[in-house]
């Protein structure tokens, strides 16, 4: 079952990501089919009981999503049988990516997918036209208010470049219905928080609201020990190592079991977490999906003055 978080440890020997001179950071991507659900793993056994005792099960929450809550993703050996061979002919367009690809495999897979930017999208490109001074923030505008989170552009440049590029309509993404790559159109505006669990997290970033939607590619993980899944963490959803793409989640209470599997690339304010908690307690149906759509009207990327020391 997929994990949350998305952008793994770029320092890992099996999937190191090259950084070009200056601030240009390559976002390596690979195409992704829609057959797998992207989501954070559920609380670990015992941890869920604790959350239930603390938060309580709100009235109106329906549907049986026990399979989603009790299954963690299976690991996959990067040296599994059948992974050797000529990388130039190994991958085909539309092929589902393998979990835990090495950097060379990611590059080869991406080359077969027809991405307009060849899998390279830099932080400079994502931030084009924004002021250079101040902290980078995202504002999720909803009918309930604004959830605002600071983005860690220095520690997680790949994740931030991808997220900001999609939010601003600067990073091309694949429209599977039209069978074409879209440019110049914001990806997140009008999407919903399609999965919410009180005391755990709220998840969004899927235009299909099914948990299976994606922008047609994935990016490598960026895991940093100092960036844990504490309350307020903004992290990438995935379905295994190096499979994150666009879906994200906001952690409501500490969820340390997600550390090392998902890329934390931002942190939300106390007020933002309070609003996310309110949203997490709405009535839901199957798969923890709100009965009434909780729409992200707009995702704004802004600079704010850094606080004085």
TrEMBL record:
Q: Which Pfam families match?
A: Pro_isomerase
EC top class, in one word? isomerase
What are the GO MF terms of this UniProt record? peptidyl-prolyl cis-trans isomerase activity
Q: What InterPro entries would the database entry show?
A: Cyclophilin-like_dom_sf, Cyclophilin-type_PPIase_CS, Cyclophilin-type_PPIase_dom, Cyclophilin_A-like
Residues of the PPIase cyclophilin-type domain: 145-301
The region called Disordered is annotated at 48-96
Highest taxon above the source species:
Bacteria
Biased composition regions of type Basic and acidic residues, renumbered to the chain: 66-76
Keywords on this record?
Isomerase, Rotamase
Q: Which residues form the signal peptide?
A: none
Any idea of its EC number? 5.2.1.8
SUPFAM superfamilies for this protein? Cyclophilin-like
Listed under GO biological process in this entry are: protein folding
Instruction: Give the UniProt family note.
Output: Belongs to the cyclophilin-type PPIase family.
Q: Which PANTHER family match?
A: PEPTIDYL-PROLYL CIS-TRANS ISOMERASE-RELATED, PEPTIDYLPROLYL ISOMERASE DOMAIN AND WD REPEAT-CONTAINING PROTEIN 1
- Name of the protein: peptidylprolyl isomerase
């Amino acid at each position: 079952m997929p994990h949350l978080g998305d952008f793994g440890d770029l320092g890992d020997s099996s999937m190191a990501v090259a950084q070009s001179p200056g601030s240009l950071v390559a976002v390596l991507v690979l195409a992704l089919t829609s057959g797998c659900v992207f989501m954070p793993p559920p609380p670990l056994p015992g941890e869920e009981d604790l959350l239930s005792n603390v938060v309580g099960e709100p009235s109106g929450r329906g549907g049986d999503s026990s399979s989603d809550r009790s299954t963690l993703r299976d690991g996959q050996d990067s040296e599994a049988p059948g992974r050797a061979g000529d990388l130039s002919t190994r991958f085909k367009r539309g092929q589902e990516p393998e979990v835990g690809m090495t950097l060379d495999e990611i590059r080869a897979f991406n080359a077969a997918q027809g991405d307009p930017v060849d899998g390279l999208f830099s932080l400079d490109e994502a931030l084009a036209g924004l002021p250079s001074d101040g902290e980078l923030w995202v504002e999720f505008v909803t009918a309930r208010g604004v959830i605002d989170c600071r983005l860690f552009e220095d520690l997680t440049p790949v994740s931030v470049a991808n997220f900001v590029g999609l939010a601003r309509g600067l990073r091309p993404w694949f429209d599977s219905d039209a069978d074409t790559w879209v440019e110049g159109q914001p990806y997140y505006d009008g999407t919903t928080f399609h999965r919410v669990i009180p005391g755990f997290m709220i998840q969004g970033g899927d235009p299909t609201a099914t948990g299976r939607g994606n922008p047609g590619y994935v990016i490598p993980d960026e895991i940093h020990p100092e960036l844990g899944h504490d309350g307020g963490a903004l992290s990438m959803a995935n379905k295994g190592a190096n499979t994150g793409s666009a879906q994200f989640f906001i952690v409501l209470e500490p969820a340390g079991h997600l550390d090392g599997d998902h890329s934390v690339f931002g942190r939300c304010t106390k007020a933002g977490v309070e609003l996310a908690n309110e949203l997490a307690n709405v009535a839901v149906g199957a798969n923890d999906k709100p009965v009434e759509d909780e729409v992200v009207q707009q995702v704004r990327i802004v600079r704010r003055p850094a606080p004085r020391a």
